[in-house]
Amino acid sequence: MCGIVGYIGARDATPIILNGLKRLEYRGYDSAGLAVLQNGKIEIRRDAGKLSHLIELVAQSPLSGTVGIGHTRWATHGEPSARNAHPHIGHTGRVVVVHNGIVENFLELREELAAEGVTFNSDTDTETIVHLVEHYQATGLDLTEAARRTFKQLRGANVVVLLSADEPDKIVTARIGNAGGVVIGYGEGEMFAASDIPAILEHTRKVTFLESRQMAIVTREGARLETLDGEPVEAKIHTIPWDPVAAEKGEYRHFMHKEIHEQARSLADTLAGRVDFQNGKIRLPELNLTPELANRIQKIYITACGTAAYAGMVGKYLIEKIARIPVEVEIGSEFRYRDPIIDENTVVLAISQSGETADTLAAMEEGRRKGAVLWSIVNAIGSQAMRIADGYISMQTGPEIGVASTKAFTAPLVDQYMLAILLADLRGTLDEKTRRQLVSDLRLVPDLAGRVLNTEPEIEKVAWALKDIRNCLYLGRGINMPIAYEGALKLKEISYIHAEGYPAGEMKHGPIALIDETMPVVALVTKDPWYEKMISQLQQAKARGGTVIAVATEGDDLVPTMADHVLWVPETPWLLGPVINVIPLQILAYHIAAIRGLDVDQPRNLAKSVTVE
Ligand code: F6R
Question: Of all atoms in ligand 1, which is nearest to the CA of residue 385?
Fold first, then answer.
């Protein structure tokens, strides 16, 4: 997601905002801008390109004022350009807004506004926000109420910060959906609002966070928090420790917990710069995928280890289903020993968080030796798997510190979904309507992830019920079969409980003998094409006395009659189901391990980067 910094105080806002944006540069962006209230007027500097370019613009044409908002943007609606860069100002020239996220109903809102005669100066979803605020102001509402009405109309995961020249003593901010964050920083006679803690840490360590559907009216003296329905909210103020590691963990006890919770946002970041929602297109420029190459690919080998290999198994489903190219998944440690059949029309696609896993790199070398096209999906920028590939997709999730991979599992699922669409588009095997639908479904992902994260208290209760188990079986089918594997891996590696993932249809061929009252079964029974098959597998497990924990789709009233515990997930387009369905399993594993008092971030015998064979 993009970066946001807002300031209101007595000092010059411009350097504070520019420095804050600099601290967020690591998140990636393609445009930058800021707006400052100067002598009662809103002044904006913005352009495509890096922050250094914005700093030059400001040097050429200085800004000065004590209230301002700044933004680094990753394009989702419209190309990176000056007109699409934030902040966006309304037609009155009196309101200005910056925004992170995706307004899911933006086309609807844009049409409604256009019907009222509003014209648009950009291709962004953000611009609808500022026009809506002005629309409500024109009915006589003050900034806070006009903003509240606007926020309530926005669907999806969104963070907004805005200010008005007519009410220069405040900044209004909101966290609307379930993803993305707003941190409000408390200073002496000055206040900050930002998307991330690092943006404001040099000024204050006293912060509060907005929850979903909350807004704040920030003045020089403090912040008033409310729900979007106008209920007052008491701000819980946290003091961020000076120790850099503890500071980075923020409000979380473990990095793994933090990284699980970052997923709503890291999934938004995964889309940033890649998805053109207007035209239903995918851009993956670093992959160097030409139409010529797309059309000659006859086979893709996905190679990876551990969690990354399970991500690859989901990728097989996605690429075969959407792009109709045969895919084989081979774990890195085996690939080079099986003499794979490769020629110049074969792609070897490596998935690796670290980009330094010895077995995965060796598999890539084998691919290179045999003349394959080499691609990688990598999190660590500049790592070997990125450097030696002919093309790559960067995960854009930010560093993952916890040894057990979480956000670096869900990002490549979305990356492969996007890759599948791009391949199909270039090969001409996807009709336009389907392509547009597949692309449009992506905008739901961050908010759906956020909704699952909000169910954590219920999942934690299940973790308490399971804390003493010795074994556990995870079952899934179809596209969710790898999620069963991944759920089991998460549990075993951090809690040291023996867990196995199984394709549910295989139960009757042996493993069902294991099920008795001491063997809990975690089953993925979401509304997907395998739902009915999974229901019958659930019945079989239940009949043998096992405790059944089902991952089920909200609103399903059959599954609760068969399961002892249900981990609910929101209804999700099934090709994106794995991204959402794995999250409750990550949370469950995390809490079981944390309750058992284990070193969650550094489980015994494991390393974050496995650089030996
Ligand atoms: C499990 C886990 C490992 C890694 C595997 C590959 O939670 O993190 O299974 O997925 O060691 O690592 P990378 O992705 O760095 O190649």
Answer: 16
354 Cα–ligand 1 center, Å: 8
For residue 204, being part of any structural domain is answered with yes
Q: What is the pLDDT of residues 208-262, one digit of tens each?
A: 999 889 999 999 999 999 999 999 999 999 888 776 667 777 779 999 999 999 9
Query: Are 291 and 178 within one domain?
Result: no
3-state secondary structure (DSSP) of residue 191: strand
Hey, how many other C-beta atoms are within 10 angstroms of the C-beta on 574?
A: 19
Residue 43's domain comprises 2-251
Is any ligand 1 atom within 6 A of the Cβ of residue 307?
yes
* Ligand 1 centre distance from Cα of residue 1 (Å): 24
Instruction: Work out how many domains the chain is built from and give that number.
Output: 3
What the block records as the tokens of 558 is: 């059959």
pTM for this entry: 0.84
CA of 559 to the centre of ligand 1 (A): 32
The reply to whether ligand 1 has any atom less than 6 angstroms from the CB of 303 is no
Does 466 lie in the same domain as 339? no
Residue recorded with tokens 């993952």: 400
Please check whether residue 66 is in contact with residue 38, taking contact to mean a CB–CB distance below 8 angstroms.
Answer: no
User: Do 265 and 246 share a structural domain?
Assistant: no
Residue pair 73/53 in contact (Cβ under 8 Å)? The answer is no
The residue whose C-alpha atom lies closest to atom 6 belonging to ligand 1 is 305
Query: What is the distance in A from the centroid of ligand 1 to the CA of 581?
Result: 19
Q: Are 216 and 182 in contact (CB under 8 A)?
A: yes
Shared domain for 393 and 462, answered yes or no, is no
In 443-558, which ranges are continuous DSSP H helix? 445-453, 456-466, 481-495, 531-543
446 domain residue, yes or no: no
Pairing of strands 41-48, 31-38: antiparallel
The Å distance, Cα 607 to ligand 1 centre, comes to 9
**Mean per-residue pLDDT pooled into runs of 10, the chain (613 residues):** 90 96 83 96 94 95 96 84 93 94 90 94 92 96 97 92 97 86 94 91 91 95 96 91 72 92 92 91 96 98 98 98 98 93 97 94 95 96 90 91 95 98 96 97 95 97 97 97 98 96 92 88 97 93 90 97 97 98 98 96 82 69
Clarify whether residues 406 and 492 are in a common domain: no
What CA–CA distance (Å, rounded) separates 254 from 32? 32
Mutation pick for ligand 1 pocket among 254, 256, 307 (CB with most ligand atoms within 8 Å): 307
Residue 163: exposure state from Cβ atoms within 10 A (0-12, 13-18, ≥19): buried
Both 74 and 160 in one domain: the answer is: yes
**CATH at 315:** 3.40.50.10490
Is residue 449 assigned to a domain? no
Q: Is residue 609 part of a domain?
A: no
**With a 6 A CB cut-off, is 35 part of the ligand 1 pocket?**
no
Q: Is 333 in the pocket of ligand 1 (CB under 6 A)?
A: no
- Counting ligand 1 atoms within 8 A of each CB, the residue from 256, 354, 384 with the most, and so the one to mutate, is 354
